[in-house]
Amino acid sequence: MKLFRKLLKAILAAVAGAIAIAPSSLLACAACTGRTDSSLAVGMNWGIVTLLGFVLTVLSCFVIFFVHVARRTPPDDGEANPPGASE
Question: How far apart are CA 56 and CA 53, in angstroms?
Answer without folding.
Answer: 5
